[in-house]
Amino acid sequence: MIVLDASILLKYVAREPGWIDVEQRILVRSCATLALAFTEVAQALEALARRGGSIERARVAAKALSELARSGVVRVLEDWRYVPRALELAPRLRIPVAEAMYIAAAEESRELATCVRRQAVAARELGIEVILIS
């Protein structure tokens, strides 16, 4: 199972450049994400709409995100399980706690997908296989 962070989900549902790679290389596999990702993606969609994007496009993307979970394509993990480990990892790896949450979840499966280079580097330091989509 590969853990998807919010950046990967945003790229896919907002149809940002590289979204086809997400669909073809990642979503065809067993995937999971944290509940936290839904809030992070919603915030990013709102920010995109505020910067001149379409509110309707944001709604369509939010609906697509919900459908990934509802359909079972992406399993949703409980955040609380990863908080203690994320609080250990964040200062050690010099990354934000939110990024450390996904790494903590990926320690179990040993796989992470992200668009965030510093998160990919940090995960690799722990021996986690990373798919980095630019």
Your description of this structure?
The protein is of the alpha/beta class and 134 residues long. It has one domain (2-132): Rossmann fold (3-Layer(aba) Sandwich), CATH 3.40.50. Helix content is 60%, strand content 14%. It contains seven helices and five strands, in the order βααβααβααβαβ. The chain has helices spanning 6-13, 19-26, 36-50, 55-70, 83-93, 97-109, 117-125; strands at residues 2-4, 31-34, 74-77, 111-114, 129-132. The protein has a five-stranded parallel beta sheet, sandwiched between helices. The radius of gyration is 14 Å and the shape is globular.
Features of this protein?
Rossmann fold; alpha/beta; 5 strands; five-stranded parallel beta sheet; 60% helix; 14% strand; 7 helices; 134 residues; single chain
Short characterization:
The protein has 134 residues and is α/β, with parallel strands linked by helices. Helices cover 60% and strands 14% of the residues. It has a single domain, classed as 5'-nuclease (Rossmann fold).
SSE blueprint and pairings:
Layout: E1 2-4, H1 6-13, H2 19-26, E2 31-34, H3 36-50, H4 55-70, E3 74-77, H5 83-93, H6 97-109, E4 111-114, H7 117-125, E5 129-132
Order of strands across the widest beta sheet? 3-2-1-4-5
N-to-C order of helices and strands: EHHEHHEHHEHE
Judging by the overall fold, what is the CATH architecture? Answer: 3-Layer(aba) Sandwich
The structural class is alpha/beta
Main sheet characteristics: 5 strands, parallel
Could you name the ranges where pLDDT drops below 50 across 5 or more consecutive residues?
none
What quaternary form is this?
single chain
Count of spatially separate domains: 1
- Helix segment tally: 7
Strand content: 5-15%
Mean pLDDT, as a whole number? Answer: 94
Going by CATH, what is the homologous superfamily?
5'-nuclease
CATH fold label = Rossmann fold
Question: What fraction, in percent, of the residue positions are helical?
Answer: 55-70%
Termini Cα gap = 21 Å
Shape: globular
Radius of gyration: 14 Å
Question: What is the β-strand count?
Answer: 5
Q: Please identify the top-level CATH class.
A: Alpha Beta
